Amino acid sequence: MNNNLYEKDKYGDLKLTKKGFKVCVILPIILLFAIITLFSSFKTIKSGEVGLKVRFGKITDTSLNEGLNLKIPYIEKIVKVNIKVQKTELKTESSSKDLQVITTLLAVNYNVQKQSATTLYKNVGKDYEKTILIPAIQESIKAVMSSFTAEEVITKRNQVSDLCLEEIQSKVEKYGINIDDFNIIDLDFSAEYSKAIEEKQVAEQKVLTAKQELEREKIEAEKKLVKAKAEKEANELKQKTLTDNIIKEKFIEKWNGELPKATNGNAIFNLDSLLK
Fold first, then answer.
1. Strand partners, 187
2. Are 18 and 36 in contact (CB under 8 A)?
3. pTM exceeding 0.70
4. pLDDT digit string (tens) for 155-182?
């Protein structure tokens, strides 16, 4: 035991000397502080990020490269701005041209342009999604939806989506935000309008079914007409054949076997044909 670090009190128990207190208590605290300070002197900038060096709230350097960057601990900090493609989903409520309430679930892919990251952070801060992007999306959706009827929003969904993207881009591009993709995931209408749509679809289906049934009956009628015509022609032919045979049979029954004593070219019957 080091006698310079410990001493006995009046009861004979060991206690730290002043030197011992410095070595065993103060020195570890200093070492811990030094380690923390050392690690606080560096910041890693990852791929897809822009690093901004800030000193007392003022941006002092905007050219930080990817990798490890040095800063003055407790005085400077390095702010990282994400410039990779990010995705946000939100639900908005708007009115159509015919005053139907439409609830829309949206997905927007966006990214911050690298050259605009400094200005965006200086003017808006890191919470630019809530401050700039989401309000712009909500306002754009309301503007576009009001130009279409509820039915057109459904039938012209791609056109509506393209117009929404253009409208959002026009609002956020001045901040250096680029809209990569815009998708309408789901459209929901009021219960009354949804019921009206369902009833309309049922009515249209009934009309279509009736038309199909009418067409089927028309075809069946034409088939019966063709069949009746064929049967009529067959019966007429059969009737004609039966009439000739009956005349022959009646003649043969009444003939006495004697040939006419005088004949000429105007004979009514051809005897050879009757005897066949």
1. 104
2. no
3. no
4. 899 999 999 999 999 999 999 999 999 9
